[in-house]
Design goal:
By secondary structure, the chain is an alpha+beta fold. Helix content is about 30%, strand content about 25%. It folds into 2 domains: about 5-100, Jelly Rolls (Sandwich); about 105-255, Sandwich (Jelly Rolls).
């Protein structure tokens, strides 16, 4: 029996956007495809499917977004998208999405890039690939060696760059002018920064061991600690520096306040990234208010 076809048509009153009708069990895109659009779910439910194992790694329901790799120039899909139920989607071209994000202040841009980097880390963790011998690490020193700031900025704006998604994201964060840095070597100091001061960290040098949900993981440069958990008010976790670490600091209280003025589309993107990072289908009651309510059509 022939599979029902996906329909795509211009969205009335939303120039450059498209409305996509996806029958149940239809594949919208495959893992590895160019990330040329973001999708907001208006009706139905879409599953994110690991391209190698076929396992469902996330769900997006009405008011939620998926395909956030479209934020990145040259981004590719990390998972396939398949309709779990008949679904209606709003398709937002990648160029329009990046333009919207680039209009935000540098601190909010940092929040988005760090959230996507944290999702990359947890995708690896759930595949059992963050052991002591194979920690999560992004070769930031190799990326920056012998290059001026201007040359690095040019690389990030080139659609032909050869950076992997975590490399692109960490480089964006390192070059962000609004992020302060700190150095830590003691577990008590790391705990104070994460839980007493309420800050999230992005490692640029050194390594940590962290334990969450009864599992132990290892991370080096590119490891994000405390972002999604902070946004959802989740319990503290254990994190131990294995060497002196240098990290970029995300002041979460200030960033959450800035989210109040963000448009609904970008809020839906961030909400979906955070829930997929945490492996949750629904927002916990403790999620910050600006992200907790679903944005449905017409809202």
């Amino acid at each position: 029996m022939e599979q029902a076809r996906i329909e795509r048509r211009a969205a009335a009153g939303q120039k450059g956007f498209f409305r996509v009708i996806v029958p149940q069990d239809a594949v919208l895109f495959e893992a590895g495809a160019p990330a040329d659009a973001l999708y907001l779910v208006e009706e139905g439910r879409m599953a994110m499917v690991d391209g190698q194992t076929g396992a469902v790694v996330g769900m997006a329901g009405a008011g939620e977004a998926f395909g956030e790799q479209a934020i990145l120039r040259g981004g590719v899909r990390s998972a396939a998208a398949r309709s779990h139920l008949p679904s209606t989607l709003l398709e937002i071209p990648a160029g329009a999405l990046r333009e919207t994000l680039e209009k935000q202040n540098a601190s909010l841009q940092a929040l988005f890039h760090a959230a996507m980097l944290e999702l990359s880390l947890w995708n690896r963790a759930r595949q059992g690939r963050l052991a002591e011998a194979t920690p999560f690490q992004v070769p930031v020193d190799r990326l920056m060696l012998g290059r001026s700031r201007g040359e690095l900025q040019h690389t990030l704006t080139s659609p032909a760059h050869q950076l992997a998604v975590p490399e692109f994201l960490l480089l964006k964060l390192v070059l962000n002018p609004k992020l302060d840095t700190l150095a830590l070597s003691e577990e008590k100091d790391l705990r104070q920064v994460l839980f007493s001061f309420g800050q999230a960290l992005v490692l640029t040098h050194g390594s940590v061991r962290f334990q969450c949900d009864g599992m132990t993981f290892y991370g080096g440069p590119g490891t994000v600690l405390g972002l999604s958990g902070s946004l959802c008010g989740l319990p503290e976790f254990t994190a131990t520096p294995l060497s002196t670490i240098n990290a970029l600091v995300l002041p979460m209280e200030r960033l959450v306040a800035d989210l109040a003025g963000l448009n609904a589309g970008l809020l839906a993107v961030l909400r979906s990234i955070v829930l997929r990072t945490l492996g949750r289908a629904e927002a916990p009651p403790s999620m910050v208010a600006v992200l907790s309510a679903r944005r449905r059509r017409g809202a």
